[in-house]
Structures are given as structure tokens and as C-alpha cells.
Amino acid sequence: MDAHENARPTYPRGLEMVREITEQSINVSQAALRACVKAATACKWLGRYLVGDEAALVDASSRPARSPRTIVAATALAIVERHRFGFMPSLLALRVFPRAPSVVCWLVRGCRFERPDAAEPVVRYEQAAPGDLRHIDTRSSAASSAPATR
To answer: Would you say residue 122 has pLDDT above 60?
Structure first.
């Protein structure tokens, strides 16, 4: 975790606070006041230190240990492959795989691929300078001279 040197509570500040409590027998609330944190934070850090020593004071990852709703890679690949060959996401969600249509659409949208039956890409052209390509109005003169009505 990136923090500036005076940020509280960081690992060094927490370790200093916990050592004051354990080695110098300072009251938890006094140590918390010195470290500019709440007494509850000081108790939490003290508990961590007593259970796991200095290593327990290091910031842990906030990522969950498991994700029960995660889609298995083989299932995701099967969904994408079937969509690639023409199955609509709503059909895949309702009949083939027991997933919400939004999840199937999310999977399909995340995979960029060329469909085998896709139309040829549109060929665009550019001119070197503005005005090189001129468009001619082919309407009749009677239609263009008539007043505009609303």
C-alpha cells in the first residue's frame, strides 16, 4: 500500500503503538491518542499483534478468498463458442446454460471476435484536402426553389 511517511495508521506506526502497549505497559487509549487513531483501532491492532506477531500487522488484500458465483472457464468458453457460430445470447441463457441473460451478454460482449458469417467491412475513403470531393445536388430546380413549409 502506498502511503506518505506521516500517514496513520501504517505498518510502522501500528507496530510502534503495539510495542508501546506491550513493552512499556502504556494504556491502550493513551497509545491510541499518541498514534492519532481511535481506541478501537488500537485494540484491533493489538489483537492482531498478539495472535500473529509483526506479520499480522501488514495490510491484507481486500480481495475475497472465493467467489461462489464465478463462471467456470470451460462454461464461459462454451458460451462464447456457441455464440460465435450464431446462437443468440438470450437463447443460450434460457435453454443451454442456466445463467441470466445479462451474464451471457456480458461474457459475449467481453470477447472480441470476428463472426464467420459477418458482412464485409465497409470500405471508407478519405480525401487529401477539404473540398476535393464535391457533392452535386440532383434535385429538380422546382423543388429547391419552393418555399419551405412547416
So the answer is: yes
Q: Which three cell numbers stand for residue 115?
A: 463472426
- Helices then strands, counting H and E runs in the chain, come out as 7, 0
CA atoms of 25 and 22, how far apart (whole Å): 6
Query: What's the confidence (pLDDT) of residue 2?
Result: 56
C-alpha cell at 103: 451474464
Q: Please state whether the peptide bond connecting residue 68 to the residue before it is cis, i.e. omega within 30 degrees of 0.
A: no
Cell, residue 75 = 462454461
Closest CA to 75 of 114, 108, 115: 108
3-state secondary structure 35-94: HCCCHHHHHHHHHHHHHHHHHHHCCCCCCCCCCCCCCCHHHHHHHHHHHHCCCCHHHHHH
Q: How confident is the model over 46-51, as a mean pLDDT?
A: 84
In whole angstroms, give the CA distance from residue 55 to residue 52. Answer: 6
Q: Where are the domains positioned within the chain? A: 11-57, 73-110
Q: Are 32 and 39 in contact (CB under 8 A)?
A: yes
Residue 123 has pLDDT above 60, yes or no: yes
Q: Which three cell numbers stand for residue 129?
A: 484536402
DSSP SS3 for 149: coil
